[in-house]
Amino acid sequence: MAAGTVYPASEPTRWKYLDRIRTRPGPYTDESTFDGSVVAETMEKMSILVIGAGGLGCEILKNLALSGFKNIHVIDMDTIDISNLNRQFLFRQSDVGKSKAEVAAKFVMNRVKGVTITPHNCKIQDKDEDFYMQFQIVVCGLDSIEARRWINATLVNMVDEEMEDSLKPLIDGGTEGFKGQARVIYPTMTSCIECQLDMHAPRAAVPLCTLASIPRQPEHCIEWAHVIAWDQEKPFPQLDKDDPEHITWLYQKALLRAQEFNISGVTYSLTQGVVKNIIPAIAATNSVIAAACCNEAFKIASGCAPSLGWPENNYMMYSGNDSIYTYTFKHERKEDCPVCGNLARELIVDPEWTLGELVESFATRPEAQLKKPSIRAEKKTLYMQSPASLEEQTRPNLEKKLVGELGLGEGDEIGVTDPAFATVSFKFRLKFQKA
Amino acid sequence: MLKIWSMKKEQQKAENAEGTAAGGKKKKVTAAQLRVQKDLSELSLGTTMKTEFPDPDDILSFILYIEPDEGMYRGGRFSFTFNITPNFPHEPPKVQCREKIYHPNIDLEGKVCLNILREDWKPVLNLNAVIVGLQFLFLEPNASDPLNKDAAEDLRSNREGFKRNVRTAMSGGSVKGQTFERVTK
Ligand SMILES: [Zn+2]
């Protein structure tokens, strides 16, 4: 393959070393599945999605383009801010205010010939499963846990036992200051982001009482202004963290309080940082984590070496706080994970049934055997055995028909819980069938 | 490309998994909703507590009533709003007292100083833990963790006087220049 490859005259050797890895098995290659004659072509045909075009995303896009991926999509809803320019190196001052996804795509396409990057300037939630279905691999460089949980749940839910292409490896990178992690998730097969939620301990909040009575640090004074003084004085109807006037109000409050307690260090920018929960971003951490993520993407796409994620280690944590430290381990899947541990099972239900009949049927169904089930649908509380007030409010539903009166449809999910099974909850997908 | 599908099939064979199929664009139950549902069905409220759901279909916001049957706050009826974000249980529920009360750990705006609502929250904790914590605040108000400093100082320096002030506040009187809401029946 390498011998026959024609390189553009301007960059004759750009792919030379990459092709040595792609065409020949190495010491760690599983030769029973590796075919060096097709790897480059496979990678050129596949589509890979990058979520986030910020600090990590810029690195990831550049790395993927230089790793031989030819068809890349990027999704980011943000526009470029001047403060991004120190580390989001695909952006220039003249780009401030423009879409991150669009500028990043254009920049990389300009520098790496033959690559197509399709930008999507929107939220990940704006796209549906058909959109996500077109990719073979998803790489995330996000700073929000909500967005990670959303894409994780979406990819887990998309796995269809009948359809091989429905299972998309999810490679997730994250950084916070000098720390970071790279992990690979095979949805429904390995521990997912929801299983691993406890790995992201929310940043330790300061006890409210410390803020109220004994502040010790400038941050405590700012938090006090933000959490307590604002509510007491309500200088503006609603706090807008992007409004300089609001931040100035908080800054001045915090400054007075700091003087009262002889604390120094309250500044406008610290106020902004604390209120907006900004953790200083370190460009080098982003590079290390993005490189680890793209390395995994390359290994999965090429099969040249075993990837993170299967069958053992799936999580690599990195810390640059005190020299350099990495630790790679296997995060176990949680049996009671509400996203992957408990995928919706099919439940055959008579379309004529009332909710009461469904509730009773759970006691005798071998797959459930629930004596006191509480049942909810996506947006409707059908019947809750407790607490008492909710039981009373939902009791009238027991008389109602599932189809029609309660608005349930084929394929809808219901969540079923029972105090007898404290550690599990069940999800069922309704399938209506006449008895 | 790695042979992910054959890895999955092998895993399933090994686990002898029963049909765990998912798919389709149907209405899905979210992780936070399911977790709250589970927590609610395990609540043990006893006789001193009650819940109220303004919209039973929205289980992420409700009101909890506590009527302590012992301690200094006996005979009062206190209510708390619970607001749970879609990020639950990663984030603690937001809890606020609806009445203006005289308590060292609850300020005049209703903010509650309870460690598991803030710095000590963990996803393994549940709504029951929060409710037990709130109940405990009425049995054992804590002067060393003050949110209402005047009340804390009062409790520390003169426990009997503090008790009297609690009774005054609970019946709608004024303490130290602040008028409180009547919470007794
Ligand atoms: Zn999971």
UniProtKB/TrEMBL annotation, chain A:
It catalyses: ATP + [NEDD8 protein] + [E1 NEDD8-activating enzyme]-L-cysteine = AMP + diphosphate + [E1 NEDD8-activating enzyme]-S-[NEDD8 protein]-yl-L-cysteine. GO terms for molecular function: ATP binding; NEDD8 activating enzyme activity. Pathway: Protein modification; protein neddylation. GO terms for biological process: protein neddylation. InterPro entries: E2-binding (IPR014929), ThiF/MoeB/HesA (IPR045886), ThiF_NAD_FAD-bd (IPR000594), Ub_act_enz_dom_a_sf (IPR023318), Uba3_N (IPR030468), Ubiquitin-activating_enz (IPR035985). Keywords: ATP-binding, Ligase, Nucleotide-binding, Ubl conjugation pathway. It is an enzyme of class 6 (ligase). Residues 347-433 form the E2 binding domain. Its EC number is 6.2.1.64. GO terms for cellular component: cytoplasm; nucleus. Belongs to the ubiquitin-activating E1 family. UBA3 subfamily. Catalytic subunit of the dimeric E1 enzyme, which activates NEDD8. This is NEDD8-activating enzyme E1 catalytic subunit. The lineage of its organism: Eukaryota, Fungi, Dikarya, Ascomycota, Pezizomycotina.
TrEMBL record, chain B:
InterPro entries: Ub_conjugating_enzyme, UBC, UBQ-conjugating_AS, UBQ-conjugating_enzyme/RWD. Residues 31-175 form the UBC core domain. PANTHER family: UBIQUITIN-CONJUGATING ENZYME E2. Its EC number is 2.3.2.34. Keywords: ATP-binding, Nucleotide-binding, Transferase, Ubl conjugation pathway. Residues 7-16 have a biased composition (Basic and acidic residues). GO terms for molecular function: ATP binding; NEDD8 conjugating enzyme activity. This is NEDD8-conjugating enzyme UBC12. Belongs to the ubiquitin-conjugating enzyme family. The keyword Disulfide bond does not apply. The keyword Transferase applies. CDD domains: UBCc_UBE2F_UBE2M. The active site is at 113 (glycyl thioester intermediate). PROSITE patterns: UBC_1 (PS00183), UBC_2 (PS50127). Pfam families: UQ_con. Residues 1-26, 166-185 are annotated as: Disordered. It catalyses: [E1 NEDD8-activating enzyme]-S-[NEDD8 protein]-yl-L-cysteine + [E2 NEDD8-conjugating enzyme]-L-cysteine = [E1 NEDD8-activating enzyme]-L-cysteine + [E2 NEDD8-conjugating enzyme]-S-[NEDD8-protein]-yl-L-cysteine. Pathway: Protein modification; protein neddylation.
